[in-house]
Amino acid sequence: MSPLLIHLATVDSTQYFLTRHPELGSCAVMADQQTQGRGRGANRWESPTGAGLWMSARLPAPALLPGLVLQRAMGAVISVLAPCGLELGLKWPNDLVAWRAGRLVKVGGILGEAKGGSLLLGLGVNLLAAPALTDRAIPPASLAELGAMNLPQGRALAQQVLAAWGDLNGSPEPAFRWPKAGDAIGWEGGQGLCLGWEADGRLRVATQQGLQLLSAGDVNALTKG
Hints:
Number of domains: 2
CATH superfamily of the largest domain: Bira Bifunctional Protein, Domain 2
CATH class of the largest domain: Alpha Beta
């Protein structure tokens, strides 16, 4: 049974809301609009009214390695979005991406915080519109502009995501992963050749300094090399 889903018209951030209300226990919150949506690190996630799915959930922490939790959670989201007819993939470490005219674009992002025996997940997916951020190496895009069909929205979509998050051990494999073995990649302070994804969620990379295993905390933004 999925946890209680609270639906708000507007909120500063669904993550902040659940952090402020630990007394709610295991539950989820979605909002039509976020005024201070959170992205990874210090980034802001643009989340205007009705343009996407903005939600967070406090769930029992799964028995998974830390590096796999968000990858599995985003994999579950990809499975929910499969009926839209798009080939959606997972960009390391945990972004929702697609290809547009041979270029990788970002459609969604996810955050996670472990607190005690709970996991606080925060999800943003650009459904109908995406912000114009021309300075991003991997620019944002929306599912609608990519040609999505039969896309559930609103509360129905949030409930499907919650149900998929109920068992992160069984998340299906996404249509593709980026980078794949052989791709040249770069990040702040380094560059190299991807050798593949490790079973614990880290990325194996060959660099001039030798073999490196990158974890999510090591890299702010991964781009094509």
